[in-house]
C-alpha cells in the first residue's frame, strides 16, 4: 500500500484488491468476457444511481462527462441556468458558454448553498428555460446542494435537470429516478476507489428525447453511440480504459454488497468525527448549515493560520490534503474522506496536524 494517506476529495488511496486487478493482464474489449463485465457494471451502476435506465461508461475524467452532459442535450442559443455554488458549478457555466448556450449564472458566496426562491424566480421569468445545471457535492467548498428540491421544480416541465454528482455519489444520498433528475454524472476516482479515467452518465427518458434534437457538435462524447453499442452488444463505441473497467467491476460489487445506505452512514459518522477534532483545534467549519455539508470532505479554516505552509509540511509527513480555491486559496483546508479511512488514521493525522499548527502560533 501507499505510504501516503490521501485525504483529498479524490483520487483516493486504492485498496489492495483493486491494485491487483489493475496490475493484471487485460482482456480485449470485443470479447464475450468483456461484454459480460460491461453488463454487470451497468446493472450495479443502476443500483448506485438508483435508476432503471442504463448508465453509460466513458473513458474520461469527470470534466469529460460534464461536457457530455451539455453537448448531448442542448442546442446553440438554448437558455440554461447554472447554479454556481463554487469552482465546479462555475466550470459547468464555462462549458455551457463555450458551446454557445445562453447561460444564466446564479452565483453564491463560497460556503453557501443555493436559494430555492432564486431558482423559482429564474424559472418564472424565463419560460423558455431549457435546463438547470447543478452540482450535488461542490468539492471546492464542501457544500451539499439539495437536488431533490430542484427535481420537484422541473419534473413536470420541459426543463432538464443536469447534475454533477462526481464527488457526491455513493457517500451522500442520491436518487436519480426518485428525485426526477434527467442527467447525472460521476467519476471513478471518487467513492469508487479506483484511479481517474472513467466517467458515468445516467440519462432519463425525458433527456433522451432532448438528445434527438440537440445540434451541438460531438463525436467522442456522443451518448447516442454509447447507447447504440451497448444495446447491440454490451460494448463501448471506442477503446475504453479496460483495466479500470475490470477494477470497477469489483469495486461496484463491493459497494453493492456493503449497501449504499451503510456507506453513507459510515461516511457521515466519519465526517462528524473530523469536524469535532478540527473544532477542538480552534478551526471553524466553512459550511455552517449541517444539512448542506457533504460527506465527501470537510472544509476548515482558522484565523491567523497560513494553511498553505501547513499543507506542505503535512505532505512531507505522508498526509496529502488540499487547500481552498478562489478567494479561499490561502486560508482553507479541505480534508477528504472518500477513501477507506479509519478513525485511527484520522487520529494519527490530527496529531501531526496539531504539531504543525503549533509552529505557527
Structure description:
This protein has 361 residues and is of the alpha/beta class. The chain folds into two domains: 5-11 and 260-359, Alpha-Beta Complex (Aspartate Aminotransferase, domain 1), CATH 3.90.1150; 16-257, Type I PLP-dependent aspartate aminotransferase-like (Major domain) (Aspartate Aminotransferase, domain 2, 3-Layer(aba) Sandwich), CATH 3.40.640. Helix content is 41%, strand content 17%. It has twelve helices and 15 strands. The strands form four sheets. Strands 2-10-9-8-5-3-4 form a seven-stranded mixed sheet, with helices on both faces. A hairpin with a 4-residue loop joins strand 6 and strand 7 (143-144). Helix 2 crosses helix 9 and helix 9 packs across helix 10 (260-280). It is globular.
Strand order of the largest sheet: 2-10-9-8-5-3-4
The first-level CATH class name of the largest domain? Alpha Beta
Ends distance: 35 Å
Largest sheet geometry: 7 strands, mixed
**E-strand count:** 15
Query: Can you tell me the residue ranges where pLDDT is under 50 for at least 5 consecutive residues?
Result: none
- The CATH architecture of the largest domain comes to 3-Layer(aba) Sandwich
Mean pLDDT rating: 96
Which strand-content bin applies to the residues? 15-25%
Rg is 20 Å
Q: Assign the CATH topology of the largest domain.
A: Aspartate Aminotransferase, domain 2
Determine the CATH superfamily of the largest domain. Type I PLP-dependent aspartate aminotransferase-like (Major domain)
Q: How many structural domains are formed by the residues?
A: 2
Enzyme class: transferase
Cofactor: pyridoxal 5'-phosphate
Keywords: Aminotransferase, Pyridoxal phosphate, Transferase
Protein name: Serine--pyruvate transaminase
Amino acid at each position: 500500500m501507499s505510504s501516503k494517506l490521501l485525504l483529498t476529495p479524490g483520487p483516493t488511496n486504492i485498496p489492495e484488491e483493486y491494485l491487483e486487478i489493475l496490475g493484471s493482464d487485460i482482456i480485449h474489449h470485443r470479447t464475450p468476457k468483456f461484454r459480460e463485465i460491461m453488463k454487470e457494471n451497468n446493472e450495479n451502476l443502476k443500483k448506485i444511481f438508483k435508476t432503471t435506465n442504463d448508465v453509460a461508461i466513458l473513458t474520461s475524467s469527470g470534466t469529460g462527462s460534464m461536457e457530455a452532459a451539455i453537448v448531448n442535450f442542448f442546442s446553440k442559443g438554448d437558455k440554461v441556468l447554472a447554479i454556481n455554488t463554487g469552482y465546479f458549478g462555475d466550470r459547468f457555466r464555462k462549458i455551457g458558454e463555450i458551446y454557445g448556450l445562453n447561460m444564466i449564472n446564479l452565483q453564491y458566496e463560497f460556503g453557501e448553498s443555493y436559494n430555492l426562491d432564486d431558482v423559482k424566480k429564474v424559472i418564472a421569468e424565463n419560460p423558455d428555460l431549457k435546463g438547470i445545471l447543478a452540482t450535488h457535492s461542490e468539492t471546492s467548498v464542501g457544500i451539499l446542494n439539495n437536488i431533490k428540491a430542484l427535481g420537484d421544480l422541473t419534473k413536470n416541465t420541459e426543463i432538464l435537470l443536469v447534475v454533477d454528482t462526481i464527488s457526491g455519489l455513493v457517500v451522500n444520498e442520491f436518487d436519480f429516478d426518485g428525485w426526477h433528475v434527467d442527467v447525472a454524472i460521476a467519476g471513478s476516482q471518487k467513492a469508487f476507489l479506483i484511479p481517474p479515467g472513467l466517467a458515468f452518465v445516467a440519462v432519463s427518458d425525458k433527456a433522451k428525447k432532448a438528445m434527438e434534437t440537440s445540434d451541438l457538435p460531438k463525436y467522442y462524447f456522443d451518448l447516442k453511440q454509447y447507447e447504440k453499442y451497448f444495446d447491440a452488444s454490451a460494448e463501448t463505441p471506442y477503446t475504453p480504459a479496460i483495466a479500470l473497467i475490470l477494477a470497477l467491476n469489483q469495486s461496484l460489487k463491493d459497494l453493492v454488497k456493503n449497501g449504499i445506505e451503510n456507506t453513507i452512514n459510515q461516511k457521515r459518522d466519519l465526517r462528524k468525527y473530523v469536524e469535532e477534532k478540527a473544532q477542538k483545534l480552534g478551526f471553524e467549519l466553512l459550511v455552517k448549515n449541517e444539512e448542506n455539508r457533504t460527506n465527501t470532505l470537510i472544509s476548515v479554516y482558522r484565523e491567523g493560520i497560513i494553511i498553505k505552509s501547513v499543507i506542505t509540511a503535512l505532505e512531507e509527513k505522508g498526509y496529502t490534503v488540499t487547500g481552498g480555491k478562489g478567494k479561499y486559496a490561502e486560508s482553507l483546508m479541505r480534508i477528504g474522506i472518500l477513501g477507506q479511512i479509519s478513525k485511527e488514521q484520522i487520529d494519527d493525522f490530527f496529531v501531526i496536524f496539531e504539531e504543525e499548527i503549533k509552529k505557527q502560533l
